[in-house]
Amino acid sequence: MDALEGAGGSIPVPIAVPDGKLRLLHLLLEINETSTPWNEHCLPLRRERDIRVCSYFRSRTTVPPDIDTYEGDGTLRGFLRALDGALADGRTDVIHAHAPHLAPLLAWGCWRRGISLRGTVFTVHTSFPNVRLRNRPLLLFAFACFERIVFCSRSSLQSFPRRYRWLTGRRVRTVPNGVDIDRVDRVLAGGAPSRSDGSFTIVSVGRIIPVKNPLGLLESFRRVPGEGARMLLVGEGAQRELVRRRAEDLGLDDRVKLTGLVPRGRVYEILSGADLFVSASRCEGMPIAVLEAMACRCPVLLSDIPPHREIAEGMDFIPLVPPGDVEGFAREIERFRSRSSAERAAQGEKCRSLVEERFSLRKMHAAYPEVYTEIIAARGGSAAEE
Length: 386
Hints:
With 386 residues, this protein is α/β, with parallel strands linked by helices. It has two domains: 5-178 and 361-379, Glycogen Phosphorylase B (Rossmann fold); 181-358, Rossmann fold, CATH 3.40.50. Helices cover 40% and strands 16% of the residues. The chain has a nine-stranded mixed beta sheet, with helices on both faces. Strands 12-11-10-13-14-15 form a six-stranded parallel beta sheet, sandwiched between helices. Strand 6 (94-97), helix 3 (102-113) and strand 7 (120-124) form a beta-alpha-beta unit. Helix 2 (76-88) crosses helix 3. It is elongated, with a radius of gyration of 21 Å.
């Protein structure tokens, strides 16, 4: 499967931008440690492309000096003021939006400045069941008005109802999410933590919310014999306190730890030192956390949902269990635990090789310029011209 696909098949690589660096304006809800658009589309490419970022909320992390930002204050007025500054700041080749809320706001900002919505890209970072009801009309607007609609996986595209897909027509593309393997390797350059202390550590990374099914995972872990087994839940979310209390009620509070949010580099260290990564999620787009675990050479056990099937396609070393099958997850966890450390390490190497082949950030970054320059070539100029 090619990284870049359209409704009519593979898209030929279009012409390069003649004056060197692509000039991109990314529209984000927030610049923070866990933002996929920020971590995958902006930070790694700041020296290769002329990147500016406009966000609805104020930044919650350090922004490198070579990325210009226009930050809102969490209000509609504040974001429109920031957006107006971004649109006024010279020419832009492509405007790339990453959240449904920002599509109509961009249209409003462009209208105020007499700028068309040509040269615009919208990326869908999730699957349809994850989209809140109030945001679905906003997606319809984006699908109708943006020049290119990019989905983060084939399963993300297929999860949308037919009317949404019909609306995108031949403007739809699929570019799978990728993991920053170079960043992982830099963090782990000092060597992976030892896994030879006799314990068995399970890790799950992500928001602690119902769709991620943390309570189901907790019930599965309860069925795993206690000798040396522990579980780390990395992340924050609305169900964190509920999960903590449930673990306490089950007598698991000494075996289950909720870490809260931790820096990305620390996440890689945790994954590298774990024996098994588990996702019992009920819905995903193309889960970066799973890909990062695999890049850290950690074996994975995944719920049987379309994005996970897409990752495991053609592979026999990634078990898939229905999200609600508590006993099934418990059995697979115990099966992993019964293997030798050498067997688990070999499976981790297979996971790493799969990510390098199919889901690297380099592969993703090679595909997006094709989307960008395709629309630049079609109009023969820059996106935002007053």
